[in-house]
Specification:
The protein is of the alpha/beta class. About 45% of the residues lie in helices and about 5% in strands. The radius of gyration is 30 Å and the shape is elongated. The relative contact order is 0.05.
Length: about 575
């Protein structure tokens, strides 16, 4: 997405009394940053302007005023890329209608309230993106046909009314739900993602072909699309779900890169095409493939695009959240910060993204939100921008949680300090002996106390932990190595003896990173005593690491003749 993807677009915001100031300010600032013109509109009762006041539910809350000079009855809906019903009770006030004198009030009159008619007309035009935040969907309940079957999320206060109108309530951890041309948000606190999602839907609507006539034929007739893989890339870029489905059924390779080094999945993820991304993943698109130019993954593209639902899909299919791109070394989190995507930043942080990873120029996420414009698109100073303030808040909150989580690891701290007495005390108190340390970007990320004690050779602590039921089969976060790997790597034969005696250690497990067994690690680090303990335990001798070598072949390669002889003697028995 360019710096101003909404340039030339108009966004209409329906407001009334009891608006939320922070919400309206975010619309005005963010949409303007993206190049759009924001029009605040309401029913003006034949006046040139009206002053509306903000929500005053909270004691001591300052009242804000909002001047509106556009009456929605005078606008052409076709001029607007999106129309948004603001949060809180503005929608209730806009449903006001005049009762004809001498006639009883009935539901049909509510259907013809001017604002209800206006928003219902927008709902009928699929080229216009509609947004409703918090209580906003109340504007449509007098016309239930506009909500029937639509997937939505809303505040719990209006939930019963929305369901009774026929909408399909769709819970979402992000607080935002997309149903084609309708974007809904749970509360005013979700406004950042709400705006980003509406932006993506506007872009998608713009890219949709206005007329589709035999799309496969159109694509394959073009010289550049005579190969099915190139036709797939073109269809994905056009968000042509029908053509993509047909091409997938024909057996096209969904992982083939195009001329720009990108796979179809990377294109869909970057453009923010949620359903397209989901369809490609179902067809076998590989989340681990990186572009052949700079080494970025589909998750990097999703982070740049800012659509949280796509990042969620990719992570659900195994994408690596902290993967660094090959050339610049950015993580998806760094890209999300760089691209000014607060909602994506929050999501990635909530999923465990590490905040202090440095890229190739030794910059972390903090460098992209500082007081210098060097790292930000447009030369803006993040600390003076709403998006920058939001991102800093999210990062600082995460940093605070990380520090608190580390302090809460009392058993781990005792192990790190080789404090046997405290270890015994905590075990007696019933502490979880297999509790893993938080992933915060340190060398002890995702470790159990037993893993750390085994690596450091704290034999007495290892014994206490095993006796207390510590699991010797749990691997670590960084290498998926188990306690026996750790002990062998660090040449701690006595720890290996304890693990062997325990009987549950997986001595022949091969590490995910290099395929080494515990014996491989012992040979690699030339620990004759550890090798002997493992040979006495009858470990496998014929398993090969990812380098194709057995422990014996590794010993020979490194010139460890004594260790090689020990293994040969064992093999001859």
């Amino acid at each position: 997405m360019g710096d101003m993807p909404l340039k030339g677009k108009k966004i209409g915001i329906l407001v009334e009394n009891e608006f939320i100031p922070e919400e309206i300010q975010h619309y005005q600032q963010r949409f303007t940053e993206l190049g759009a013109t924001v029009h605040l509109m309401s029913r003006l009762w034949d006046k040139k302007t009206l002053q509306f006041i903000s929500d005053v539910d909270e004691i001591g809350k300052r009242i804000h005023q909002l001047e509106v000079s556009i009456d929605f009855k005078n606008v052409n809906l076709k001029d607007y890329a999106a129309v948004i019903m603001a949060a809180n009770y503005t929608s209730v006030r806009l449903r006001h209608f005049e009762t004809p004198k001498g006639k009883p009030i009935n539901p049909e009159q509510a259907r013809h309230a001017p604002a209800v008619e206006f928003f219902a007309k927008a709902m009928a035009d699929r080229s216009i993106i509609k947004g409703a935040l918090c209580h906003g969907l109340w504007i449509l309940t007098p016309r239930p046909e506009t909500l029937k079957g639509r997937k939505v999320i809303c505040h719990e206060v209006v939930l019963a009314d929305i369901i009774n109108a026929g909408a399909v309530y769709t819970p979402s951890s992000t607080g935002v739900v997309v149903d084609d041309d309708l974007v809904t948000g749970r509360s005013g606190k979700d406004v950042a993602l709400f705006v980003d999602t509406i932006t993506q839907q506007i872009i998608e609507t713009k890219r949709q072909p206005s007329v589709v006539v035999n799309p496969i034929k159109q694509l394959t007739m073009k010289k550049e699309c005579q190969q099915p893989e190139l036709a797939l890339l073109a269809a994905v870029e056009a968000n042509d779900l029908v053509t993509v489905s047909d091409l997938i059924k024909s057996g096209v390779n969904v992982n083939k890169r195009g001329p720009l080094h990108l796979t179809p999945l990377m294109i869909a993820a970057g453009y923010g095409y949620v359903q397209m991304t989901e369809n490609l993943l179902k067809a076998g698109a590989d989340v681990h493939v990186v572009d052949s130019s700079l080494g970025a993954s589909a998750l990097h593209k999703a982070a740049q695009g800012g659509v949280v639902d796509i990042a969620r899909l990719l992570l659900q299919h195994g994408a690596l959240i902290n993967l660094q791109s090959a050339m610049i070394g950015n993580t998806p989190l760094i890209d999300a910060v760089w691209a000014k995507k607060p909602a994506m930043v929050k999501f990635l942080l909530d999923q465990g993204a590490i905040i202090d990873i440095q890229n190739r120029v030794k910059a972390t996420v903090w460098d992209f939100i500082g007081d210098k414009p060097n790292w930000t698109a447009g030369g803006t100073i993040p600390e003076k921008e709403n998006w920058g303030k939001l991102i800093r808040t999210y990062l600082e909150e995460r940093e605070k949680r990380d520090k608190a989580a580390v302090k809460e690891q009392r058993l781990m701290l005792a192990v790190l300090n080789n404090d046997l007495a405290t270890v015994k005390t905590l075990i007696a108190e019933g502490v979880d002996v297999d509790e893993k340390s938080p992933v915060v970007g340190s060398g002890d990320d995702g470790q159990t106390p037993l893993l750390v004690a085994s690596f450091k050779g704290y034999t007495l602590i290892v014994r206490e932990l095993l006796n207390a039921g510590a699991n010797p089969r749990i691997g670590d976060y960084l290498m998926k190595a188990n306690p026996a790997h750790k002990a062998a790597f660090s040449r701690h034969a006595e720890v290996i003896k304890l693990l062997v005696e325990h009987g549950q250690a997986e001595l022949d497990a091969q590490g995910a990173y290099n395929g080494y067994t515990v014996l491989h690690d012992a040979v690699w680090h030339r620990s004759k005593e550890t090798v002997q303990v493992l040979l006495d335990a009858n470990v496998a001798l014929d398993l090969r690491g990812h380098n194709g070598k057995t422990p014996l072949e590794m010993a020979i390669t490194y010139g460890y003749s004594e260790i090689a002889e020990l293994i040969r003697e064992k093999m001859s028995e």
